[in-house]
Amino acid sequence: MKSIHKLIIAISISMGALVTSCQKLDIPPTNIFTPDIIFGSEAGVKSFLATIYRGLPIEDFKYRPDQGFKTGGNDWENFFNSASVTGEEVGPFGGMDIGGGFGYWPYGDIRNVNILIEELPKHADKLGQSNVDALLGEAHFLRAYYYFGLAKRYGGVPIVTTVQDPGAPLSELQVHRDKEEATWDFIGAELDLGYQMMNETNELGRANKYAAAALKSRAMLYAGTIAKYGSANFVDGQARAEGFAGIPADKANGYFTKAYDAAKLLEGHYSLYEKNSDKVQNYVDLFLKSESPENIFVKQYSIISGTAHSWDATMSPRYMTANALTRSYPTLDLVQRWGNLPVTNSDGTPKRFNDRAELMQGLEPRLLATVYFPGATLRGLTFDMQRGIYPSFSGTAAAEVAKPANSRSYILSGDTKTLYQGRMIIGFTGPWTGGDELTRTGFYVRKYIDAAKPISTVDLNRSEQPWIDLRYAEILLNRAEAAMELGNAGDALTVINMIRNRAGATPYTSIDIDKIRNERGMELAFENQYYWDLKRWRIADVVLNNARFKGLMPYYVFNENKYIFLSEPELFQRNYNFDKKFYYEPIPGGELGKNPNLYPNNPNY
Amino acid sequence: MKKLISRILLGTTILASSACTKIDNYDGPNASFEGNLISSEGGNLLTSQGSSQIRLEQISWSATPSPQEIPSKFDGTFKDSKLFKGTYKVIPKGGAFWPLYDTLTVDINKGTKHDFTVTPYILIKNFTAVLNGKTLTLKYTMEAPIGAGLPTIIETQPYVNNTKLVGAGASIRDFSDIYKKAINKEWADMTDADKSVTIDIPDMLPGRKFFVRVGVRLNDSFKSSNFSEIIEIDVPAN
């Protein structure tokens, strides 16, 4: 009997527990952040924005054009840059290894921006309407930045502006490619919204309204040149015929006008950095001083948060750093953008120098601030580049370089310890072909190098100087190029001379498109722009037609106690060839597999 | 112990015998496709490493197949004996010939053969290679089967190698690329003198055998070259 009582009690307790237990299960999950928590406060929005900024396709120190954007703590191989396949530098890549891209497809990041744009207006009561508007403007800028990263690689891509529901029918999720023209127009419209809605200023590292205008000038210039030059030099195919790769030529001037107008918006709000009267030091400082009025949009790095880069340690030889590995070196071809160096006499014989540093006399300050020449100093040490020793030298430079290596009378060495009559044969800083530490062209990169760092602190993953993604000099160059394409040579000349004055160069009295392009090549060297410039001007297949590049080799002539410089093939002896199909990258194969509506793929893939 | 071992053995036997019951009944890649790239001007199209391919798309497998390519051999033939049986769209591409736009649909099975006829951009005629001392003199003329609308002629150059496999990407740079002659003209603007080329290659190595041909490169989508036949040269020892 007792046991029945017990049974009744047990059943009623468990029944009671069952009935009451299920009432409060339908509550918001407590272990994940809901939209209310994220978008209900400024701190929440900021943390969400941080993810979006982190993914931005900024081609910075760490960007590796064959692998992608790097945001980790040990992405130290900063010499794998696009400059190293375009003839600005030579080195790590065996040839044109980046033409096919790395399958960039950031629709996950774009979805985050779309969530932001969808959610923000719902939370105006908590965030304030003006904050919401500014944040929305920022979101449009960010979305444009992602689409710009896509458009310059693939041409037309699917434009997705809503947060897709994963449960939607497949036919809705498999979005068609949009035409290339529509994609660029979308980017322009997004940046217009960004300019209208954002504030004049923002936190360092975030975009303000002028960043939107600056990016627009860049993007519209790309679109204009693709329309103009892409309709003359192209690869035939279905994607081109259907407008996914290529823009009609008559649209070019419309884009150039947009690029010009956007660049004009920054006038009076930004200026070139001219704080130091020493022109060389001024040009060096502009990449290192955070208070520069030239910086429009920067990306920051920090050792503490594990995002520091390695520019200082991967661009200078170990001789001047704590632990370096260099592999990409500026070419003589780049240096000759500034004109031929005075290394040869009029009779063809090499000019004799008492000291290596004499070569630098009279060169443009911007050139000396961009490239470390033989004889320059860094952290108290001299760049003592020396390829070898000639016991004696006679004849012309050209005849000597044309000889087969084994019939030249020079003395070379595999290491710095070997001496010739008490003199070092090669310098501590190269050139040398035995390993990845010393120059193979006779030059090193100076741009962005922080000379103030003590040697002991120059190590991998220890550089924190910000990357200047948009700076006013580029906007002026965009403006000059757009003006010239529109036939406004007067404005182009004025703007180019502003840049040349700051650089310490002689101003031009007349201007043409080649001068503007060359100015761009000089001003923006190593800033990961030239690869895209070669592509959008559609000259990459001409410039990089089985191209080989040159270095400047310093030699010591023993019996004269003088130095000479010979222009010789760079010592990697690389060969660069750009296939025409590389003007567009292939749509990634995995994406084509998931979404057949992405066909046709770009021509010749 | 014995019991345990026999149980384990029994278990593995059961597993092993039941594992393989599903047989892969798909055919292996045992179909083949071969043929010639025939020049409309007679003979096979003379090609070089990577200069022309046959592109295949297996439409019986997927509506949007990933393309695969059969590279053509130096003599203008091609063959792939490891294809899956099925229906393919095929088209020759990449070489220096007037592009074909109509793809052909072929059922590829064992031993399927097909010859494609293409019209080369440029023919290299009267090609001679004469050795005078250590200097090799190459002479040839260019002809165009169809002149109108021909892509810009970029350059012409010799290719010298010490094997029969000689052509773009397979040559000795010091005897080949550095004797490149830039042209950069439209066919209509080229004079007879432009079309008749002489190239001297000095300092050929004595006592060696070389294989020599010449090519003309055009600015089409592939920047491809038309090639001459290959001439064998024995440089006498000193």
From TrEMBL, chain A:
It holds the Pfam family SusD-like_3. Keywords: Cell outer membrane, Membrane, Signal. It is found in: Cell outer membrane. It comes from the Bacteria. Residues 294-605 form the RagB/SusD domain. PROSITE patterns: PROKAR_LIPOPROTEIN (PS51257). Residues 106-221 form the SusD-like N-terminal domain. Belongs to the SusD family. This is RagB/SusD family nutrient uptake outer membrane protein. It comes from Pedobacter panaciterrae.
Automatic annotation (TrEMBL), chain B:
Residues 32-119, 123-230 form the DUF3823 domain. Signal peptide: none annotated. It comes from the Bacteria. Pfam families: DUF3823, DUF3823_C. InterPro entries: DUF3823_C, DUF3823_N. This is DUF3823 domain-containing protein. It comes from Pedobacter panaciterrae. The lineage of its organism: Bacteria, Pseudomonadati, Bacteroidota, Sphingobacteriia, Sphingobacteriales.
